[in-house]
């Protein structure tokens, strides 16, 4: 999806967990990521089939701006922040993202690793203007409740 957005080329993904008899299709965090991208990319079109096993994505323009997103507790904030960090440098306006949910889990990069590893690496590529990550409140599974970003910082 990130490469589709950056290249401006539409993508279709079929048979998403179609063989999984218990839980076919997209998971809640994957749908949530699609909705987050929709909030940052103006004019994109996201179509999920009724079974949830197929997605059609037509990208638009990365606009940036302020976005607030409630992330499901099934995935940590790092999962969502990584996508934003890949798109943010190409936005028409600076991106200020407020993400709420689980700050650290076993499946996603933690917010502290993003702050201490990923952001310094991005700075080495010259992407340092306003690049910040603030953790206002920590959240753990199953309830989540933590958050980062916000008008005092954000990702860009």
TrEMBL record:
Task: Quote the protein name from its UniProt record.
Answer: RNA 3'-terminal phosphate cyclase domain-containing protein
Identify the Pfam families for this entry: RTC
Q: In this entry, which stretches build a coiled coil?
A: none
Q: Name one GO molecular function term.
A: RNA endonuclease activity
Where the record annotates domain RNA 3'-terminal phosphate cyclase, the positions are 1-146
Q: Name one GO biological process term.
A: endonucleolytic cleavage of tricistronic rRNA transcript (SSU-rRNA, 5.8S rRNA, LSU-rRNA)
Annotated membrane-spanning segments are: none
**Organism superkingdom:** Eukaryota
